[in-house]
Amino acid sequence: MSETADRVKKIVVEHLGVEAEKVTEDASFIDDLGADSLDIVELVMAFEEEFSVEIPDDAAEKIATVKDAIDYIDSKL
Amino acid sequence: MRRVVVTGLGMISPLGADVETTWKNILASKSGAAQITRFDATDYKCRIACEVKPVGHEYGFDASLEVDHKIQRQVDPFIVFGIAAASEALRDAGLTDMTEEERLRAGCSIGSGIGGLPGIESESLVLANKGPGRVSPHFVHGRLINLISGQVSIKYGLMGPNHAVVTACSTGAHSIGDAARMIAMDDADVMLAGGAESAICPIGIAGFAQARALSTGFNDTPEKASRPYDVNRDGFVMGEGAGVVVLEEYERAKARGAKIYAEVVGYGLSGDAYHVTAPHPEGSGAYRSMEMALKKSGLSLADIDYVNAHGTSTPLGDELELGAVKRLFGGHLATMSMSSTKSAIGHLLGGAGAVESIFCILALRDQIVPPTLNLDEPSESCLGVDLVPHVAKQRKVRAVLNNSFGFGGTNASLIMKAI
User: Fold this and answer.
1) Which residues in chain A are closer than 8 Å to B68, comparing Cβ atoms?
2) Which fold has domain A3-75?
């Protein structure tokens, strides 16, 4: 697992209060991890802080799964 | 009008994370006051408060037992306290599994005096230091006062009236009174009613201290600071927590064999129309509030055995409430007892009227009245009033009166009696 993936998953666990095993790369934030749209806004902010990247709203809207987040962040690092 | 009874109690306080622990500690004359731990208060005029104790303390509060991790992160502590107290009350009433039909007629009226002050303070700093793009998307609904009622209704599927009172330190009493009327008027059959507060944060302590409302002379002896009616009192000690009761229509409660604690028989409300922080110099608002509650109750003064006073330990407020009580009770003063439990748990602001109503209900149940701590040297005007100094007192308790008065000159009185 990449370092980005580890850090993303840690943030997801902390923010959504879900068990770490549930945070697979295929997991959908809304369908599998119980997030709502505002939780995703908050997660995106946390990713921005953690990785010092900027994730514009149009890109954030396309982030639906844990893998989407990891891939987007990796593409900006 | 339909009759309204209390069938469930819930509480988070500086002396316990539930009703019975708090009550046991209150009756044992314990104090919940200590140095402030939430933030470094070294440079503050007031450095003490009655905080809800953390996990690990003998009677600490473990939020994770009642509130989802995600919600805890998103909302201010007053909402967490409110959800926890409401959950305890609903369990106590045996109403956690109501049918959809019942839930359509069950609602919430849980308010707060100030709401999410710590979160407003901390997110303002985020805004100032990191800019608008870093403010939490949960900022607004994590701080709003009506979000205890909102969260509790979602957690338990309560689809009846969803209401939240904001009347400063009268909030808890108004919440119960208003909710009782909703049941009496047939808007609902069951209501979760009460108040919560958690404003022990830098701006909260600084603000109340600047308003000259807090005790500042007992920073090294915090348990001595809240001393209602004592000549050396110098302001209130801020408390935090929540109190919630389950109110239920009497025939429904009887039919399901519910444990009935008390009947809410009287509710009085008034405005001082005088000053934003100082009470009316003749205590006229307090008097009229109590008088209205008494009239509604159909009881006589001789029936009221215990008054849980607003008694915040401020020089002016205590004196004026005492004067109003003396004028109202007249010849019946000799047979009643009055105490201020703020001497033990501090002033819960929007939660005060709710937790104090619960103490009144427990006084009815156990036939014992809680003490006024630190009443070492009663002021002259206390003569002839049993203020239950230092230790709890076993006595006959048939009906009880709870007073709450708030900034803005808003007054509420509740009368409850055994059924």
Assistant:
1) 17
2) 1.10.1200
